[in-house]
Amino acid sequence: MTDIPPIPESSPATGQTQAVTTSAPGKGMAITAMILGIVSIVFCMGPLAGIPALILGIIVLSCKKPGKGMAVGGIVTGALGCSVIFIALLVSILLPSLNRARELAKRSVCGSNLKNLGTASVMYYTGNNDVYPPTLQHLIDAAGHSEYLLQCPSEKTDRVDYFYMQASYRDPGNTIIACDYMDNHRGERRNVLFLDSHVERYDEVSFQRLLTESQNLKFAEKLRAAEYELKAADRAMQYQKQYEKQYE
């Protein structure tokens, strides 16, 4: 008769150890998924940490391993981390275009300001014995227009943002009476008001060429002097601010 070997008794401690060993990999993957998801958001690592978090979280859920809560958390945070970096990239691509569109809109408003000033100057000329206004401030006060017409939306200063010279030469279509200062639109373009009240936009090279025409030579001389004074005043103001900041 063959002897039957005795069945080994499994102690509770051994069974507990075996269960812990079996469940450890699942929980470890869930914890890793959660940590990677948080890292992808907090440290802005985006897909580098977010995609592994998504993969590990999905593996834990599909294999029905322990740690489902942390796996779901890893999936959610990983997805958020990926979306945050994509949104940041989208904003960085679109922001220059939005700033450009905003600047173009400001140039249009600036040109409209000069157009209104040109129309007001023609009305002033008609009602004041064929004499143009001596200054833009005088024109605004006489016509009762808003002070905002004297301010370029790109500059927003307290001074008059347009150079003006009282017309003395009658060539309405080509004689300049007002324009943007050079720094109004980062030196890229200038809105120019002519004697017949129409406004055109020029790049700096074309504008300087226009100033060489005989009817605009005096305007060019006074414009350069005014812009030199403005730059000197701006430098003096910067030095004053630096001095005040240094000795606060």
How would you characterize this protein structure?
The relative contact order is 0.07. Helix 1 runs parallel beside helix 3 (68-127). The chain has helices at 12-42, 47-62, 68-127, 136-143, 204-211, 217-246, and strands at 162-164, 176-180, 189-194, 199-203. It is α+β, with helices and mostly antiparallel strands and 248 residues long. The protein is 62% helix and 8% strand. The protein has 2 domains: 19-89, no CATH class; 106-246, no CATH class.
Order of helices and strands: HHHHEEEEHH
Number of helical runs?
Answer: 6
Unreliable spans:
10-22
Order of adjacent strands in the largest pleated sheet = 1-2-3-4
What is the oligomer described by this structure? single chain
SS-based structural class? alpha+beta
Please bin the fraction of helical residues: 55-70%
Q: What number is the mean pLDDT?
A: 79
Summarize the biggest pleated sheet: 4 strands, antiparallel
The domain count comes to 2
β-strand number:
4
- Cα shape: elongated
Determine Rg (CA atoms, Å): 37 Å
Beta-strand percentage range: 5-15%
Our measurement of the CA-to-CA distance between the termini, rounded to an integer number of angstroms, reads 107 Å
Short description:
By secondary structure, the protein is of the alpha+beta class.
Helix and strand layout, with pairings?
Elements: H1 12-42, H2 47-62, H3 68-127, H4 136-143, E1 162-164, E2 176-180, E3 189-194, E4 199-203, H5 204-211, H6 217-246
Antiparallel strand pairs: 1-2, 2-3, 3-4
